[in-house]
Design a protein that fits this description.
The chain is mostly helical and 251 residues long. The protein has helices spanning 3-9, 13-21, 60-87, 93-119, 132-139, 144-172, 176-207, 211-221, 232-237, 242-249.
Length: 251
């Protein structure tokens, strides 16, 4: 089986991370087959986002629940990066290399968070989660440009906005270990969003469309909004230009 497909189909988180770490950087070597994708474990139970309970950070369980929520995002991000490399054929070798490297980063992030969960007495799957990130992948599966616009530059860029506040809260309560893990993730996620921006702009150039206009059109088409808080410095580092930052800042 093609290594990319095998990694996507793998349901065991630890084995998925091992498969991802060993991936070559090229495109799929077999005709693409999207049945069974994505591979994920039976737990966590997936529920509507409104049904995921809020837990404060004042208890160990609350801190673990927050770490679990981020771990679930990272697990989905592994599959999202793998899917980008597997699904969209006809791209350059650099495209596949970029998204395999993102998957490898996300797998490492998931491992860091899994370790932190264990130190708190929990494991991945102990809390409920939602499927919002993968839902967006399915809605953009038909078009690489839409995928690059809406998943890295909207949903994953959201992490650039909100993670600093989460880090601050963990530091305030003295949980510097979790804060340190989240800081690593925040620093490296800038590159991931930048890769999405790079290929979004490249695809716009290939199709002769204006990036600013098509980005706004896709947001409207998919009823997606970019809400505060905004980490404009991180977004600028991730490739958002001045016009986009101005538009975000004045929302």
């Amino acid at each position: 089986m093609d290594p990319l497909r095998a990694a996507l189909l793998e349901t065991d988180p630890a084995r998925k991370c091992e498969r991802v770490a060993a991936l070559p950087s090229g495109a799929a070597s077999e005709p693409r087959d999207f049945s069974g994708i994505p591979g994920r474990p039976l737990l966590p139970q997936l529920v509507d986002p409104k049904e995921v309970p809020y837990r404060g950070l004042g208890t160990v369980e609350g801190r673990a629940a927050m770490a679990h929520a981020v771990a679930h995002i990272e697990f989905n991000a592994i599959n999202l990066a793998l899917d980008a490399a597997y699904r969209f054929d006809g791209m350059s070798a650099e495209f596949y290399s970029d998204w395999v490297s993102v998957a490898q980063d996300e797998a490492r992030h998931f491992g860091l968070l899994s370790g932190r969960l264990q130190s708190l007495g929990f494991r991945y799957g102990d809390f409920t989660a939602h499927n919002g990130l993968w839902d967006a992948a399915e809605k953009t599966a038909h078009d690489a440009l839409a995928r690059m616009a809406l998943v890295p530059r909207v949903l994953e860029a959201r992490g650039l906005d909100v993670t600093p506040g989460i880090i601050h809260r963990f530091r305030e309560i003295g949980d510097r270990e979790t804060a340190a893990v989240l800081q690593i993730i925040l620093d490296e996620e800038v590159r991931h969003v930048a890769i999405g921006t790079k290929w979004f702009r490249w695809l716009c150039g290939e199709r002769g469309v204006d990036p600013t206009t098509i980005f706004k059109d896709l947001l409207a088409e998919h009823r997606m909004k970019i809400r505060p808080p905004f980490n404009l410095e991180a977004r600028a580092a991730a490739g958002f230009d001045d016009a986009e930052l101005d538009a975000i800042a004045t929302r």
